[in-house]
Amino acid sequence: MSAWLCVLAVLLDTALGEPRRGHPLVVFGGWATALERRWNRRPDRSVGAGFKATLLLVGGPVLVAVFCQWWLPPLLLWPLQVLVLWLAMAPRSLHEHALAVARPLSAGDLPAARAAVGQLVSRDTNALDETGVATAATESVLENGADAVFASLFWFLLAGLPGVVAHRAANTLDAMWGYRTERYEYFGKTAARLDDLLNWVPARLTALSYALCGRTRLALSCWRRQAGQWSSPNAGPVMAAGAGALGVSLGGGAPYHGQWRQRPVLGAGPVAEAATIKASLRLLRRALGLWLLVAVTGSVLLSVGSP
After folding, report:
1. Contact 256, 246 (CB under 8 A)
2. Are residues 259 and 240 in contact, defined by beta-carbon separation less than 8 angstroms?
3. What InterPro entries does the entry give (predicted)?
4. What is the Cβ-side half-sphere exposure of residue 104, based on CA atoms within 13 angstroms?
5. At what angle do helices 151-177 and 47-71 cross, to 10 degrees?
6. Of 19, 37, 187, 263, which shows the fewest CB atoms inside 10 Å?
7. 259: how many CB neighbours lie within 10 A of its CB?
8. Whether the predicted pLDDT of 42 surpasses 90
């Protein structure tokens, strides 16, 4: 049944996109912000406070999800699962945000493209040229596909409602606190490590999916040779395989928090451009279709084989 609920959640996202108002993750983010301001009083000694905040903000929703999973009747549980999975994923939103970068970039409107890509990435976008904007947007599609789409599907299929809630809560906290800055270096450490742990398997399945849906041999080669050079243990495989699947070069230098950071080059081929962003969206759609096909096929085979 879980596979069909995944299909329904994806169809719901395709039809409606993200809620414009009252998104639970916005409320959750408000709680996280308030708690961080209250508990992160000593940024140089805040590992313990960050651990307690992460435990509270992840553990609380997970306990509620466990209760619902065990005690709600199926006729109530199934719609709730579809609703939560829809809210946890964001393929249509990611598609819309990426197109909002690709369209002005194709038209030569670099300022508009910079403004749009600023909604997707944490790096400084004002100094990016056309290649930098296209690279940032393409990397965001590949990485957010792993974090916001495939990891949610993986944890839902593996652990149901508690799994997807745990992953989405941890991933949201990592997005808010997982920075190596003076304020978050210690407070965000627990959230960052938990997010790394929960994304380890989904990231590699995503990388494999990108490879199977693109230039397979090149993608696997880039994954094997380049992933370990990236600072993130999960983004490395995803972006190396994704860049190889697209046949482009990503990574390289980029500005972060007022400093220029030289990153390894991932993939192989020409540099990114507006068309690359659209190609990454097509790759994401093919990979999502592959996941749903495998999940539904497995569900059918299990149901046929069961007594």
Report:
1. no
2. no
3. Cobalamin_biosynth_CobD/CbiB
4. 16
5. 150
6. 37
7. 7
8. no
* Predicted TM-score of the model (pTM): 0.94
CA angle 303-208-227, nearest 5°? 150
- Tokens representing residue 126 in the block: 């004002």
Supply 177's token pair. 């606190």
Tell me the domain boundaries of the chain: 2-305
Which residue's structure tokens are 């996109």? 17
- Taking the C-alpha atoms of residue 197 and residue 173, their distance in angstroms, rounded to an integer, is 14
One-letter identity of residue 146 = A
Nearest Cα neighbor of 277 from 246, 253, 254 is 246
Cα distances from 51 to residues 167, 206, 232, in angstroms, run 16, 28, 21
* 213 phi/psi in degrees, rounded to 5: -100, 5
pLDDT tens-digit profile of 144-197? 999 989 999 999 999 999 999 999 999 999 999 988 888 888 999 999 999 999
